[in-house]
Amino acid sequence: MQQALEHPAPVEQDFLPLNGTDHIEFYVGNARQAAHYYRTAFGFRLVAYRGPETGTRDRASYVVVQNKIRFVFTTALGPDHPISGHVRQHGDGVRDIALWVDDAERAWRETTNRGARTVREPETLQDDQGEARIASIAAYGDTIHTFVERRNYHGVFLPGFSAIEGEDALARPVGLKHVDHVVGNVELGQMNHWVDFYRDVMGFRMFKHFDDQDISTEYSALMSKVMSNGNERVKFPLNEPAHGRRKSQIEEYLEFYHGPGVQHIAMATDNIIETVSALGRQGVEFLRVPSTYYDDLLERTGPIEEPIQELQRLGILVDRDDEGYMLQIFTRPVEDRPTVFYEVIQRKGSRSFGKGNFKALFEAIEREQARRGNL
Ligand code: FE2
Questions:
Q1: 305 vs 6: CA distance, rounded Å
Q2: How far is the CA of 184 from the centre of ligand 1 (A)?
Q3: 180 CA to middle of ligand 1, Å?
Q4: For 176-372, which CATH superfamily applies?
Q5: 325 C-alpha to center of ligand 1: Å?
Q6: Cα(118) to centroid of ligand 1, in Å?
Q7: End-to-end CA distance of the chain
Q8: Do 20-163 and 176-372 share a fold?
Q9: What is the CA(330)–ligand 1 centre distance, in A?
Q10: Phi and psi at residue 194, in whole multiples of 5°?
């Protein structure tokens, strides 16, 4: 059975206007080394820092940027810090999917009135570059959303951070442009709870959904619904495990992350062949599908502009829907726990998430699970 793709209905009232993703903050065991990896492997540029040298005593944070993508890597400087607890529990992972708003207090008031739990009350941060307003609410697991209002701030990131002057000699840009979507894994039976949260509390709507008939392989399955904000710049697919014969990739994630959290971040490029070639040269490891995937690719997708041999050499997948096609590839997890990984995506008309690739992809993931002894 194929679920019809649901095209978004117009939003009646966009009570939480979001301009887009502001930044994604990771809590990690060693922020200096994490930032180094994202600069040399993924091509980000170091733009700001906060730590003991700038007057922050309990933590160190590195802000890296590539076009519109901004990641922050933060580590604690002592064992009893909540950040250390987060890392002990989850390993390196996403703490905050921060959202860019025009009015942080209003975003906080609207969402908490609708049931969100406050993590940080509205606060004004100031330095000589101006002021920013922030407030945070809880999402799935230990993940939070910080609303960032920066219209009166002129510094490089946020008050308290020092700009890194000059060129970043380590950065090797690869053409990653913006965050396309951020996927959360939640426990069995919890997907609809979080779908309701994003609809009722955040004012999102359902963009697409897939069930375990769409997404099942011999061993494992998952269910997924994609929630989107009004301008479609913020898209959050939510996965939960479905019953399969053996342990699904979502269960493996939940076990090693010790709870719900961000599974992957998809980053868009305008030239996936160049981007993936550069990432590969710089040491990023991708999942591979069997070469038979490419045998009948054109029959499935119709004509595409990219040379098949190049896609096959790099392991890039293609899927088409009624609006166009898209190309995508997934990295291996970027830490030792099989948790967070990345997707590189190029959209050519299609707004889909690559449903036609799920089977080949999940079989590739399961081969990796089996190598880890987790299938
Ligand atoms: Fe994705």
A1: 27
A2: 10
A3: 8
A4: 2,3-Dihydroxybiphenyl 1,2-Dioxygenase, domain 1 (3.10.180.10)
A5: 15
A6: 28
A7: 26
A8: yes
A9: 8
A10: -80, -30
Give the Cα separation of 360 and 218 in Å (integer).
Answer: 11
Give the per-residue pLDDT at 361: 81
Q: What is the token pair recorded at 188?
A: 């069995």
- Give the residue extent of every domain in the chain: 20-163, 176-372
How many angstroms does the Cα of residue 302 sit away from the middle of ligand 1?
Answer: 22
pLDDT (average), residues 264-269: 98
| Distance between Cα 110 and ligand 1 center (Å) | 29
Is pLDDT at 5 greater than 50 in this prediction? Answer: no
Burial class (CB in 10 A: 0-12, 13-18, 19+), 172: middle
- CATH number of the domain at 20-163, please? 3.10.180.10
Distance 113 CA to ligand 1 centre (A): 31
Which tens digits make up the pLDDT trace of 125-172?
A: 999 999 999 999 999 999 999 999 999 999 999 999 999 999 999 999
CA 168 – ligand 1 centroid, Å? 29
3-class DSSP assignment, residue 347: strand
Q: How much distance in Å is there from the Cα of 345 to the middle of ligand 1? A: 8
pLDDT tier, 247 (very low <50, low <70, confident <90, very high otherwise): confident
Q: How far is the CA of 353 from the centre of ligand 1 (A)?
A: 6
Average model confidence (pLDDT) across the chain: 92
Q: What amino acid is encoded at 26 in this protein?
A: F
